[in-house]
Write a structure and sequence with these properties.
Distance between the termini of chain A: 54 Å
CATH class of the largest domain in chain A: Mainly Beta
CATH superfamily of the largest domain in chain A: Hexapeptide repeat proteins
CATH architecture of the largest domain in chain A: 3 Solenoid
Strand order of the largest sheet of chain A: 8-11-14-17-22-25-28-31-34-36-37
Radius of gyration of chain A: 21 Å
Largest interface: A-B, 44 and 42 residues
Number of strands of chain A: 37
Structural class of chain A: mainly beta
Oligomer: homotrimer
CATH topology of the largest domain in chain A: UDP N-Acetylglucosamine Acyltransferase, domain 1
Number of domains of chain A: 2
Number of helices of chain A: 4
Largest sheet of chain A: 11 strands, mixed
Chain lengths: 326, 326, 326
């Protein structure tokens, strides 16, 4: 899928990419064109991908990418159709390359292209409050409400029958139909992804977006960050309470219910029909199955299989946890 | 007490109510008028109430309501003066009936009746910032301050000598005197109450309001949801720090002190002179006594008697908890 | 250092100060001038300080203050050059004196001196959004961005190359260079410091400010309170994620990374190169060393030495904590 919001400045020649990485010895490389930079799964022929941890060995082996930034240790896991580009720090290198393809994805200064909604084409088909601002590359479906002081920055698609509250800020986000976004949410900001550096931390480009599927609700004061290489997704008919934080690359399934002040760290995947109690926290890069119940206040630090009920910190079988009360 | 903010579209005939519930066999019912729908305690003669859990057996037995939506198992606990209406799912049925009496209580779209405060009667007796909006059915006492970009939606009463910060949103709320509401709070939104449904969750009507008594303070970025059938109440001279979430139907006593990022789940009752440390969480439907101290970070999942000091997750006697540190 | 934001109404005569404290027996006091009220470390000759806990015995012994509000039990720890003023409740007394020197530090009503930035000297050298408000005593460096609806209240210094998001509120804050403040933050409000009182809690004056050093980032919806007698400080190149709460007087070192929804209670000191996982909480008045790692969800309730890795509630050595998972 083409990136719908961030403009790809490519293709670039392989030699240019190698220059960006300060790789001078180009004798093993023929000078191909590279169309795009993508993750191992979505990359296609003539795309470049990256592979930095054994954890992704299986999907690396199946990648369709033509080029892959990786380490000497990992390169053997790639298929023959994929040419390894060996670097010391895969993530720093891929950040440099991504910045080259998508230079507009790093800087999250406020959008100064916005106009008052009353000066736009939306003035007749949206019910809107005072001081509503709308940026470029925005579409809004029929029967939508947008509250006072809300800012729809550039790169936003809103379906039909949505209700956006007041004091909301949205950017780089695809909201489908019948969705309610309550007051004071901030949606689509870059994630908390960067490379620590003693002088000035180096921000990681975030070319992913936020996708909120049909019939969802997001409570007041919640924040949902957009993805870095992949998207942050809230599945159909999932309801989030107030003051929830959803980090970059998180994927939440359908019919999931998340109570107030829950936080989900980067890249975790939550199944369908999951219930998460208030103030629970889920660490990054975890897989929570479907039909899982997580008790309020839990701290989940490992994967949870389907149909489990857990509670505690670290979260474990709920019966073991509740035994403590007696 | 009459509902001061949500207009009652009743009375309705009992037969109409039975139709709403798809009860066709009306032979046991004479066709009375029903004035209002209320909880077991506040319902009066000719009102309809509901009774869905053994937990409320005692108060069900004392109800003054003339009609009660309940189950076949529970109906025997009602007094003779109260006619049971038997349904499969009490809460879904009462939501349907409440929606009939109070159709304006379900939809929380932004209030598009607001005007700039400088165009209202408040322009001369309130000290206000830029871009302050005020809706219908609002009253504001003397010597009040309302900060920039703040939205007082419809159905708000503010007493005298109150200071409301900037970027605040308030609706369906009764704020008494000498109250400070700090920046970026959202007060009076409907609670996180709904019936899960695989296609589209069914929102529960919230006809309760938020009441904030004299001398309270609510910190920046806090959210206080209004009640469903009863009210959410913050007692006199209670102080809440930043980023606190108070769910629907919670009642907090007087002189209570709540530190930052605390969350209190729906329908819990907190006594007087309670101290709650930062990030503590209190599960729903609990009773926390007076003079209780709850340590920072605690997860309270059962009732706490008066004069206790607790800490931990699950919260227990603080001495037992602190023993762990050594 | 002179207080850069709160105007000192002093000097006052010692006799006036004693009157404020209702100390009628002045026979042991010559009537000196008192220039300022400061903490034990920063007070100089002719300043007044306070000493209320044995914990501060060592620094009390070295104070350069000429006068010190303290108790009969503690006065012996002061040097001969410092005259003790004995009171029952040191903190209430110092609050009364501070209110006398700095009457503008108590009330945090919204700033009604602000103007639209387009009517100020900043209109030509700042890139700003719609409806940006700026108060008195503000300076903003070159190459800065200020987003829509953001309010820079009085007493704010912003360095060069800073990016302030939308819906942000800042007051009493010194932001240095290359700092990013993301959307919906509230920075510089008074802390949650007051003296509980059954009728109406007595607010403590907050004459400290917030200082955010070069290259920092503060995530969306975060709150950073200003200090009471000292300052709240975020050290160079420290990055804070979304929905973080930093209480008054907290000092955070350099290159520290704090994930989402973390809360740090009043007066705690965090070292350099510290990593704090999501939703962790740190109690007040603690000292966290440098190069410390605190796992997500931890509740830290005692000091942590340099180079430690801790996790859990209460937080302990991370290996002990992780053993629980198996």
């Amino acid at each position: 899928m083409k990136n719908i919001f961030f403009q790809n400045k490519g293709p670039f020649k392989l030699s240019e990419i190698l220059n960006t990485l300060n790789i001078n010895d180009k004798k093993n490389f023929t000078d191909h064109q590279i169309n795009d930079v993508k993750d191992l799964i979505s990359a296609q022929n003539n795309d470049l991908t990256f592979f930095h941890s054994k954890k992704y060995e299986k999907i690396a082996n199946d990648t369709k990418a033509s080029f892959c930034v990786t380490t000497a240790n990992l390169k053997h896991k790639l298929p023959n159709t994929c040419l390894p580009i060996i670097v010391k720090n895969v993530l720093v290198s891929i950040a440099q390359i991504t910045s080259k393809f998508y230079p507009n994805s790093i800087n999250d200064n406020f959008d100064n292209t916005v106009k008052n909604i009353s000066e736009t084409k939306f003035k007749d088909n949206v019910t809107f409050g005072k001081n509503v601002l709308v940026g470029e590359n925005v579409s809004i479906g029929s029967n939508c409400f947008i509250g006072h002081n809300t800012i729809i920055e550039k790169n936003v698609i809103i379906g039909h029958s949505c209700s956006i509250g007041s004091n909301v800020i949205i950017r780089n986000t695809f909201i489908k139909n019948n969705v309610n976004i309550l007051d004071s949410c901030v949606i689509g900001k870059h994630g908390f992804g960067f490379f620590p550096n003693k002088i000035k931390n180096l921000r990681y480009p975030h070319i992913g977006i936020v996708i909120i599927e049909d019939n969802c609700e997001v409570g007041c004061g919640s924040t949902i960050d957009r993805g870095s290489m992949s998207n942050t997704i809230i599945g159909k008919n999932s309801f989030l309470d107030n003051q929830i934080h959803i980090a970059h690359n998180v994927r939440i399934g359908e019919n999931t219910i998340i109570a107030g002040q829950v936080g989900i760290a980067g890249s975790s995947i939550i199944g369908d029909n999951v219930k998460i109690g208030g103030q629970a926290g889920i660490s990054g890069h975890l897989k929570i199955g479907s039909n899982v119940e997580i008790g309020g206040g839990s701290g989940v630090i490992k994967d949870i299989p389907d149909n489990s009920k857990v509670m505690g910190y670290p979260a474990k079988n709920i019966r073991d946890f509740l035994r403590k009360i007696k």
